[in-house]
Amino acid sequence: MTFRKRKKQHPLPPVEETAGTFTIVDGEDYLDEIFENDMRISRSFSHFQLSEEEYKENYGRVIRELSATGEHKFFVAIDRYGRYLGHVWICLKIDTVDFVPSAYILDIETLFPRIGIGGALLNRAEEWAHEMGAKKVSLRVDLKNPARTWYAKKGYSERAVIMEKLL
Question: Which of 12, 88, 131, 148 has the CB geometry, 3.0–4.6 Å to 121, for a possible disulfide?
Answer without folding.
Answer: 88
